[in-house]
Amino acid sequence: MSRIGKLPVEIPEKVEVSIKGQDIEVTGPLGTLSRSFTPRSMFHKEDNQIKVERPGNSKDDRAIQGMTRSLIDSMVTGVLEGFEKSLLMKGVGYSAQVQGSTLVMEVGYSHPVEIEAPEDIEFEVDNASGDFQAKIIVKGIDKQKVGEVAAQIREVRKPEPYKGKGIRYEGENIRRKVGKTG
């Protein structure tokens, strides 16, 4: 039995959920999210809960049930509280700033790197964060989109293992290597 899939998704007071066939639309104080699900997952709304059911008991059906339940729960959390991912920059001369909806970073290249914020995503920059040059915060209501944008930012300059320079997730542990001995 899927442990996650059989748990109901609680719907808070401020959130509205509408189900039309295999499509679910979740509306809350921060915005609206909608998603289409596979016909192998069935769901129905009872009181202030959504229950996800599966057609059979195969391994794939159990996996899809758990994934569908997690996606619906993330949608409800996103429109109610939102999601954020923090990245830290470390390196000589590294800096970041927000210009409108664009994140402009100086990360050791001959030119500044600009990343345009997709719809429903916003950037915040906190310069001079202790040992790091800048802290970049990616905020949004869609958990998947927040993670993708944060991964794009990290991809600009991955952390290197000798000095630890680069862009890393907050809390990420970089394995350091010993340099040359002379």
Topology overview:
Elements: E1 9-10, E2 16-20, E3 23-28, E4 31-36, E5 42-46, E6 49-53, H1 59-80, E7 83-90, E8 95-99, E9 102-106, E10 113-116, E11 121-129, E12 132-140, H2 143-156, E13 166-169
Antiparallel strand pairs: 1-6, 2-3, 3-4, 5-6, 7-12, 7-13, 8-9, 9-10, 11-12
Could you explain the architecture of this structure?
The model has no long low-confidence stretch (mean pLDDT 91). The chain has 182 residues and is of the alpha+beta class. Helices cover 20% and strands 40% of the residues. The strands form four sheets. A four-stranded antiparallel sheet has the order 11-12-7-13, with helices on one face. Strands 1-6-5 form a three-stranded antiparallel sheet. It has helices at residues 59-80, 143-156, and strands spanning 9-10, 16-20, 23-28, 31-36, 42-46, 49-53, 83-90, 95-99, 102-106, 113-116, 121-129, 132-140, 166-169.
